[in-house]
Amino acid sequence: xxxxxxxxxxxxxxxxxxxxxxxxxxKKENGFIQYKEVEGLxxxxxxxxxxxxxxxxxxxxxxxxxxxxxxxxxDKKSEKLKKDNAPQFIKSVWDHIxxxxxxxxxxxxxxxxxxxxxxxxKLSKIICYHHSEWGVDYATLKPEVEALLxxxxxxxxxxxxxxxxxxxxxxxxxxxxNKLQTFNLWKEVKVPVEPxxxxxxxxxxxxxxxxxxxxxxxxxxxxxxxKEPQLAYFxxxxxxxxxxxxxxxxxMRRLPSCFCFKPISSKELKLIFNNANxxxxxxxxxxxxxxxxxxxxxxxxxxxxxxxxxxxxxxKSLHIGSGENLNYSAIRLKDGEYLxxxxxxxxxxxxxxxxxxxxxxxRTGPFSYFKNNPDDADLYGRKDLLSRGDGIIQKANQQAIAxxxxxxxxxxxxxxxxxxxxxxxxxxxxxxxxxxYIAVNKTIQEKYSESQINIINNPDxxxxxxxxxxxxxxxxxxxxxxxxxxxxxxxxNVDSITRVINKNTDSYNDRREHFHFVKKILNTTNCFNR
Length: 530
Known about the structure:
Elements: E1 2-7, E2 16-29, E3 32-43, E4 63-66, E5 74-75, E6 80-81, H1 88-97, H2 107-114, H3 117-123, E7 126-131, H4 138-154, H5 159-183, E8 190-192, E9 201-204, E10 209-212, E11 231-233, E12 239-242, H6 245-252, H7 266-272, H8 278-294, H9 300-314, H10 330-334, E13 336-338, E14 342-344, E15 355-357, E16 362-364, H11 368-372, H12 374-380, H13 398-405, H14 419-422, H15 434-448, H16 465-478, H17 481-486, H18 491-502, H19 508-522
Parallel strand pairs: 4-7
Antiparallel strand pairs: 1-2, 2-3, 5-6, 7-12, 8-11, 9-10, 13-16, 14-15
Helix pairs in contact: 4-5, 8-16, 9-19, 15-16, 18-19
């Protein structure tokens, strides 16, 4: 939380106001906490203002358990943890982990809990005030260890073996004593007493500041008489607060440092989509953070994976406006074509398209319909004359291509229904097919109905900046890509997401490169959640 004192000029009594800006949890869903940034003014005399010390941990959501006993709660017969008669600290941890409520913590239950973000949030804020291992007293620990060893020795019936076990017990106790003497540092550790002004600093009364001494103010003769720092022992009791370090730092810090906790700015967007025009960057930056929050794309990993896929789907220009590019040549629709090589000019009089021959890069036809109906490919595909893409002989009829390529499948009607064109690839992730539009639209209405985006009533709403991002984020959320992103930043993790978005694409390597590019731009190696 950040706050600044403000005195409003138009206030007659010149009251002080606090400008408050904070990030606060606003919703828990699917085991993930959503955060919302809140900003506003609060009057200094407002009764709701409450001052809290940064050391009052419980006020910040931490739970403290003091003087918890050491008890063995593992049932050796069933090999399952037992909750009965456990300390309150253990019971609290147990309650968060035991999600099926059967009072048994099997290995599977523990693994599932460790992968549950909500459970981890709760566990990380449990603090135990307990005896430090640096201050364990051998005289206290010896009876406990000896009793445990004696329990095993009593079960041995062979007298000679029992005698050897007794000897081994004495050796274990001796080793334990030596180890504790080595690690029992509590009584030996000293720390400097809080100093006053350091010797190389000086109080300057003319400026009313403490500053470092200037070279001519240092008395070199004082160095020989430099005093040893005053030291003090640790507190007598070795009981200390044990807490989850990362959770403590997260709670106490004042300014967010990574994109798990701060919004994406237009500057970062421009670095990622460096060919996008100013208007696109401005429009997207206004809405993307709210949309990310709604669909839980709210960690560095999730954001990086998302942008990596968008770079491939929409390009570095963040192309949104017209949807999927269906400007295919008739030659490619029928079979395939080279993208380079020696250009053979077309014949306008005969309606024959130009093409490359003997090229090194080949692209096959993307749609089986036109391979089976080559006459339609000739009728609707682009035909070039002097160079690839000039369309001088015949421009591509993209609507006709879409209606034929995408007809009678995945919820689309026949060619005459125009569904192929209405539900062609659109948005930041090229959402295609009516079935997908219906499914994603359902997620939009469930998660963000106030957006007033309905891609079934108005399929072209995806062609707006807002619709393009919302549809992509809803698709991402609905297909479990947040959870896939959480698994890490390896190439295999990138590929697993690519397989969901476009399984048969030839761009797997490109998307991996996009991921590492975005990771570098956002500097996610400094992510707080890593």
